[in-house]
Design goal:
With 453 residues, the protein is of the alpha/beta class. The protein has helices at residues 15-28, 38-47, 64-74, 89-97, 110-127, 131-140, 150-162, 179-188, 207-215, 232-235, 251-263, 292-298, 303-309, 326-340, 350-358, 364-377, 409-423, 428-435, 439-448; strands spanning 7-11, 31-35, 52-56, 80-84, 102-105, 141-142, 145-146, 169-172, 197-201, 216-217, 229-230, 240-244, 265-266, 275-276, 280-285, 313-315, 347-348, 383-384. The strands form 6 sheets. It has a 5-stranded parallel β-sheet with strand order 2-1-3-4-5, with helices on both faces.
């Protein structure tokens, strides 16, 4: 392999992907070697190292997870990017805990992957500039979260201290702050990273289905139950169960969940004998619902469940508590969406960036992300602008499409649902009411349109 230029090793059993990747890498100034066999790639890497590896997950004989582990045994520091058509929180967490540096969902264009490659190589070069700089770089972009603010440094420190333990954890924070990322980090850096990571949004599951989702059921226990189904508590045994919006659970189920956590035993619907489990519970909820006085006044949360989960609490800061991180977040989102939508944009002008930093952002990082995405999609030049009054100055409900871009109906629907969720403060019941659909339909659409990140 020639010495000049970054050296990339690609592993994908699809020959077409290999041909396209090799051609695009050559245009970008990379030297790319392509392998359809993970074992052949591993042998080549052991003989002659590369600057970066890109691997698929679904491959015959040796899958991407096993490949990651075996590469890490040879070189613990080489950057590895994972690509797959099967994107989910669980897949992303599994990839990270096996040693991946980043994760990209198929299909993607090369510009999007190229941004990720450049960012990863820059981070690698930064690590080589000295131990002091390395520590700073790790502190400012860790656990797939960007943050230099003191509030974020406290969050990173809390994750470091709490992750290795098996105790239940309560993650509190406003909607859109990144509680799911914190839950994933607790598992990936915990005592049992090889165990399953299962996530359930308690506020998105219809009440008629939530008990079965949690505890599972036997055949015939419910209408249409043709076979036994393990609930998320059982599925996560040996690992971590992340329960988002946990206060949305009905009170009777909260009490049953508290018993299951405390005894590590559950009974499926329609079953007679209990099943032993071994699962770490990570719960998340909006911080104001966890004020003990409010809990007692509204009875939104079972007191036993509260005491079990509140042994260790991690608070995720709102964006207004870490405004110094907004420029870095904005630039990260600009690069991400510029690659995704094939837009030749550099970033926001200075005045717009100041306005972005001063904006209230009640929807936190999620709202900022969507706002930047909208600006990139509608970009008319290389420099982005944010109007003095924010994007609402165009008028409520107005949708503007660029003349040279035609997003799919699925993409328009996804963006609109995200917009409504922001305006509803992340509350899915309120969002479903605004959209005039039931919560079951909203849940299905959110699952189908779950964005990659």
């Amino acid at each position: 392999m020639p010495a000049e230029g970054p050296r990339i090793l690609l592993v994908d059993d699809d020959p077409v992907t290999g041909i396209v990747m090799q051609r695009q890498c050559a245009r970008a100034g990379y030297h790319c070697r392509v392998f359809q066999s993970a074992q052949a790639a591993l042998d080549a890497f052991a003989a002659e190292r590369a600057d970066l590896l890109v691997t698929d997950l679904r491959m015959p004989h040796m899958n991407g997870f096993e490949f990651l582990e075996r590469v890490r045994a040879v070189d613990p520091d080489v950057p590895i990017l994972v690509m797959t058509g099967y994107s989910s929180i669980e897949t992303a967490v599994e990839s990270m805990k096996r040693g991946a540096n980043d994760f990209i969902k198929k299909p993607f264009n090369f510009a999007e992957l190229n941004v990720m490659i450049e960012r990863t190589l820059q981070a690698k070069r930064a690590r080589g500039q000295g131990a002091g700089q390395t520590a700073t770089a790790q502190r400012t972009d860790r656990y797939h979260m960007i943050g230099q603010a003191p509030a974020m440094q406290r969050l990173f420190h809390a994750i470091e201290r709490v992750a290795p333990t098996q105790c239940p954890v309560l993650i509190t924070g406003e909607a859109g702050t990144g509680k799911t990322l914190v839950a994933g980090a607790l598992h990936a850096h915990g005592a049992r990273p090889d165990g399953p990571f299962v996530a359930l949004d308690c506020g998105a599951v219809p009440r008629s289905l939530i008990e079965s989702e949690l505890f599972g059921h036997e055949r015939g226990a419910l209408p249409g139950a043709q076979q036994r189904k393990a609930g998320v508590l059982e599925q996560a045994s040996g690992g971590t169960l992340f329960l988002d919006e946990i206060a949305a659970l009905p009170a009777t189920l909260q009490a049953a969940l508290a018993r299951a956590i405390e005894t590590q035993r559950l009974t499926r619907l329609g079953a007679r004998a209990p099943v032993a489990i071994d699962v770490r519970i990570v719960g998340a909820c909006n911080r104001d619902l966890w004020d003990l006085a409010a809990v007692r006044a509204t009875d939104q949360l079972d007191h036993q469940l509260y005491r079990l989960l509140d042994r260790v609490r991690i608070d995720v800061p709102a964006l207004q508590e870490r405004r110094e991180d907004i420029p870095a977040l904005v630039q990260h989102f600009v690069e991400h969406f510029a690659a995704r939508y094939n837009r030749q944009v550099r970033g926001f002008d200075a005045a717009s960036l100041q306005r972005l930093c001063a904006h209230a952002w009640p929807g936190n990082v999620r709202e900022l992300r969507t706002a930047v995405e909208r600006c990139v999609i509608l970009a008319a030049g290389t420099e982005l602008a944010w109007p003095a009054g924010g994007q609402d100055t165009d008028g409520p409900g107005q949708i503007v499409f660029p003349e040279d871009n035609f997003p799919s109906l699925d993409e328009i629907e996804r963006q609109y649902i995200e917009h409504v969720l922001e305006r509803a403060g992340g509350k899915k019941t309120r969002a479903a009411r605004i959209l005039e659909i039931n919560k079951t339909t909203l849940w299905r659409k959110l699952r189908r349109n779950q964005p990659d990140s």
